[in-house]
Amino acid sequence: MAQVRVTKEFKFEMAHALWNYDGLCKNIHGHSYILYVTVLGEPIADNNNKKLGMVIDFGDLKKIVNQVIVTDMDHSLVVSEKSNYTPLFETGQMFERHHILPYQPTCENMVVDFAERIKKLLPESVKLHSIRLYETATSYAEWNVDDNEVKT
Questions:
Q1: Of 26, 61, 69, 140, whose Cβ has the fewest other Cβ atoms within 10 Å?
Q2: 78: domain range?
Q3: Is the pTM of this model over 0.85?
Q4: Interval 38-73: pLDDT, tens
């Protein structure tokens, strides 16, 4: 059977600040992120399977990505654990939704993190192919399985 790629789009709002950065992005600022998740697999050929003809049900992919990324990250502030974030979050209500990450929250680092989160929850027959995360209308980072496979 043929391998088929299936892609779903997700949108969320998130703020971040880049610790020890030498440009404007060292300040807290927000983005309207657009995330494209592409998986690869064979369409189900079992006539008795309710998912006949699907690589993955779009609804199932939506549940996975919402669970590990969108619901968690939407309308939150993300900073590196290396930053001096404690005083900021002591102010209370404006910073209730935040994440202290073990990495600099760049678009590039986030796609790597998001790929790991998603891969853990996909069915065994479905592989993560790529993730594209738009931080602005003209700028994105992309993770692709072909670039990350272990070469023997």
A1: 26
A2: 4-148
A3: yes
A4: 999 999 999 999 999 999 999 999 999 999 999 999
Q: Can you say how many angstroms the Cα of residue 29 is from the centroid of all Cα atoms in its chain?
A: 19
List active site positions. Answer: 25, 75, 135
Query: Contacts by 25-34 with C-beta closer than 8 Å and gap 24+?
Result: 28/77, 31/135, 31/136, 33/133, 33/134, 33/135, 34/9, 34/10, 34/133, 34/134
CATH of the domain at 8: 3.30.479.10
**Per residue in 89-134, pLDDT tens?**
787 778 888 999 999 999 999 999 999 999 999 999 999 999 999 9
Say which residues have a Cβ less than 8 Å from residue 49's Cβ, sequence separation at least 6: none
Structural domains counted in the chain: 1
Asked if residue 131 lies in contact with residue 37, where contact means CB atoms within 8 angstroms, the answer is: yes
32 sits in the region (left: phi over 0; alpha: psi -120 to 50; else beta) called beta
Q: Name every residue whose Cβ is closer than 8 Å to that of residue 69 and which is 6 or more positions away in sequence.
A: 10, 12, 35, 114, 117, 118
